[in-house]
Amino acid sequence: MFLSGMLARGRTVVKVSAIASVGRAARWLAVATWMGGIFYLSQQTAPLGVTVSNVESTVAHVVLYAGLAFLFQWALTGGAVRPRLVFGWAPIAFALTVLYGVSDEAHQAFVPGRTPSLADITLDAVGAMLGVGLALLTAALLNARSPRH
After folding, report:
1. Domain-located, residue 19
2. N or C terminus of the chain: which is more exposed, having fewer CB within 10 Å?
3. Distance CA 3, CA 110 (A)
4. Minimal CA–CA distance to 63: which of 34, 33, 39?
5. What digits encode the pLDDT tens for the residues 42-92?
6. At how many degrees (to 10) do helices 83-108 and 2-42 cross?
7. Can you tell me the distance from the alpha carbon of 83 to that of 42, in angstroms, rounded to the nearest whole number?
8. What residue numbers bound the domain in which 134 lies?
9. Number of domain units in the chain
C-alpha cells in the first residue's frame, strides 16, 4: 500500500511536470512566432503597402512591440500573477523587447528599400513600455480576482 501510494504520487508529479513543460513551451513558441512575424514584415520592401502613412507606421511599431513585450512578460513569469514575480521580470521583458527592436533595425539595413531608424527604435521602446504595463495590469487584475487562501 505504501509503495503504491509513492508510485501514484510519482506519476502525478510527472504529469504535472509534463503539463508545465508544455505550457512553458507554448508561451515561448508564442514569443518566437511573434518575433518571426516582425522579422517577416521587416524584410519586406513595403511591409504595410505602397502608401503607408507616418501614423500607420507609428501605430504598427507600437502595437507590434507592445505585443512582443506582453508575450515576453508572460513567458518569463510562466503565466504567474504573483506581484513580486511579475514586477521582477518587467525590466527584463522590456529590455529584451527593445533589444529585439534594435536588432530589427540593424536587419533593415540589409533590406533593399529599407533603412534603420532611431525613431523606430524609440517607437519600439514606447510599445515595449505599453506591453509590459498591460502585462502588469493584467496580472494585478487577475491577482485581485484570485481567491485568498
Report:
1. no
2. C
3. 63
4. 34
5. 998 865 555 567 898 899 999 999 999 999 999 999 888 787 888 899 999
6. 30
7. 35
8. 24-145
9. 1
